Amino acid sequence: QGSQLAWGAVAAGSVQLRSAMWFVPSREMEGTLIGYLGTIFTVLYFLSPVTTCFTIYKHRDVQKFSSVPFVVGVMNSSLWVYYCGITMQETTQNLMPNILVNGLGCVLFTAYIAIFLVYASRKIVVIRQLAICGSAVALAVFLLEFTSPHLNLTFHWGGESVPLKSSLCGVFIDLVNVALYGSPLAVISTVIQSRSTQYMPWQISLLVFIVTCLWSIQGLLLDNIAIWLPNILGVLLGVLQLTLVIIFRDARSPDQATVQSGSSVAPLCDSNDEAQSAPLV
């Protein structure tokens, strides 16, 4: 009887162990949770240009602000929505957080562009920018949809199960995102030359670091290089920005203070260019 009780206790322990193991999240589940956490911070990131739009509304003029970051933001977010959609159709990767945040990004960027269309003196410039970026997205989707099925290639970018169309789309988006790092790098160059962080708000730099860290973790958990590669570069960029903020946080010449107090356009433009140009998800 004692032996039976012992074996019963072992069996009960095994059942409890299996039950406990059932609650251990998989890498895919962890990636999804990190993705939703990244969505929260990314929405805050996407809301950073609200101050710019408020300034435009208050002055009833776009002044020297540029609509390019917002137009490019629509293009970038649209491509990410397309990539995540076609990838989820063919794989088990859960990219719903990426679709959600980029869909919301498209809506917000479109709203920002609407402000420019209302108050820009040369509306044709904004319309031309929209036409160029819209044509680029349409052409990319057309080529991927009608060309990739006829290509006899074995190429996977983002996972062994990712089909050719998604892989080619992932490479294209990564190239676009790497190119978009030109704007924040230009801001960093300005900070180093002026030895002042007035053109690089620490709040935006910290948000860049947090957001790219979260999406990098998601990409690594899903083993999707298309997601983690551009965001890893963003993490390095964020570290560099925060380092410069620490080094030059108290450095400001009288001339620079005069420039800042005389016009809020330059800092806002630079900070928003940085925010909208950095690749995210």
Annotation keywords:
281 residues; mainly alpha; 12 helices; 78% helix; 0% strand
Task: Write up what this structure looks like.
By secondary structure, the protein is mainly alpha-helical. The chain is built from 12 helices and no strands. It has helices spanning 2-22, 27-46, 50-59, 68-90, 96-119, 123-147, 164-179, 182-194, 202-221, 225-248, 254-262, 265-277. It is globular. Residues 253-278 have low confidence and may be disordered.
List the helices and strands and how they pair.
Layout: H1 2-22, H2 27-46, H3 50-59, H4 68-90, H5 96-119, H6 123-147, H7 164-179, H8 182-194, H9 202-221, H10 225-248, H11 254-262, H12 265-277
Helix pairs in contact: 2-5, 2-9, 3-5, 4-5, 4-6, 4-7, 4-12, 6-7, 7-10, 8-10, 8-12, 9-10
Task: Give a nutshell description of this structure.
The chain is an all-alpha fold and 281 residues long. 78% of the residues lie in helices and 0% in strands.
The mean pLDDT is 81
Task: Report, as a whole number of angstroms, the end-to-end distance.
Answer: 61 Å
Radius of gyration over all CA atoms, rounded: 23 Å
Helical stretch tally? 12
Number of E-state strands: 0
Element order: H for helix, E for strand: HHHHHHHHHHHH
β content, as a range?
Answer: under 5%
The unreliable regions are 253-278
Largest sheet: none
Structural class: mainly alpha
Shape: globular
How much helix, percentage-wise, in residues? over 70%
